[in-house]
Amino acid sequence: MDLELTAEQLELREATRDYADRVLRPAASRLDGLDTAADFPWELMREGTALGLKALPLPRELGGRDADMVMQCLVVEELAAGDLSAAYFFRHYWRFARLVPRLPAAIRDMVVHGIAHDERFVPASASTEPQAGSDNALPYDAPHHGATLSARRDGTLWVLDGRKSMITNGGIASLYFVLARTDPTLGIRAGATMFAVPASTPGVSTGPLYRKMGQRGSPQADVILENCRIPLEYAITEPGDGYAASERGLTSANITNAGMCLGVARSAYEAALDWSVDRVQGGKPIFRHQLVAQDLGRMQMLLATARSSLHAVAWEYSHSRGFHPQRSWQVRVFAAEVAIEVTQKAMLLFGGRGIMSDHPVEKLVRDALTLTHGNGTNALMTMKIGTHQAEERAAGRGHDGARRSTAAEGSARS
Q1: pLDDT at site 137
Q2: Which residues, given as ranges, of the chain have pLDDT below 70?
């Protein structure tokens, strides 16, 4: 594993940091006040687009940098240190990068042209439904559970009907990647298909933006599909392969989510560090007080450990054949917990100012708390890690641990 950064990675990290410091950080309160999709501040994203951030992981022949996951994590940390919502905006393009070369020609051309020439071209992933959040993520693999938005063939068209809930970029998206149930008699692993649905398609509409605790500049809304008719070739997976495609996208998104956690936490730590030098209490800068110094030390250790773990996982994702999605769950959960602890310690170091909306740490605390929910909750991912480890141990012993446990219980009762 070689984590020495290349000249290209270092150059792009510095350019992104400069953009985040000059453009995004001063606009954080504006992004925090986003109320409607019509108010989305496109001009704030223009310089990041010019840096090539939208196309970052795309192959060079399609206009990207062919960036590995390490470079994506470097960039997204800098963006999130400027503003979490802006980081979400650019990162959302990346989760589809591996799909793009395999998309049907019409959709691939739409995506590549949109990224290169239309600043208002935005993709969105539409999987969550009012009754299917954790059911999708576990998954609860049974008929009629998980995503149930229906897709049926009608001659040369697919007809989609249903509702997706709390969709990131809902209201500003140009193209939705929709997980739909093509066979409700099967569980979601085998009964779902992924479709590309242009937002301009008749029958597609969106609800009002959700009002959120944090990351308020990243719009989320329900997406409603009513008798929505799309060509057969807009099915971007084979029937039944949609869930697997969705899971692959979530694996990469978990890793970059961890990078965003780092950016938020680092921003809070740096604010607290500066405050501890400038603020004088008891006749000395507050970092001279042992409890403050201890908190600063704890915050720095958490950040360093999370960053080291993240870069190792990012490298493995891009360069190791033995990579398992569990690694992405682990680093996302740990980084989110680090973000929460660091931002809250920073808030406390600011005293009464820490909870005032005109001081930056209050927003960072709110943003950090939302990071436990991206792509599934921390509790759900931790449960999946434990289940996977136990299943591996049971397989190594050559038996099904659940069946052995049940048999033992029956024997004890008799």
Answers
A1: 84
A2: 1-2, 399-414
Of 97, 82, 14, 11, the closest CA to residue 44 belongs to 82
- Rounded CA-CA distance 325/251 in Å is 6
pLDDT of 162-200, one tens digit each?
999 999 999 999 999 999 999 999 999 999 999 999 999
Of 308, 289, 266, 320, nearest to 68 (Cα)? 320
Whether residue 88 contacts residue 274, with contact meaning beta carbons closer than 8 Å, is answered with no
- Distance from C-alpha of 101 to C-alpha of 98, rounded to nearest angstrom: 7
- Do 1 and 315 meet the contact criterion of CB atoms below 8 Å apart? yes
Sorted by where each starts, the structural domains of the chain and their CATH numbers stand as 7-117 (1.10.540.10), 123-238 (2.40.110.10), 244-395 (1.20.140.10)
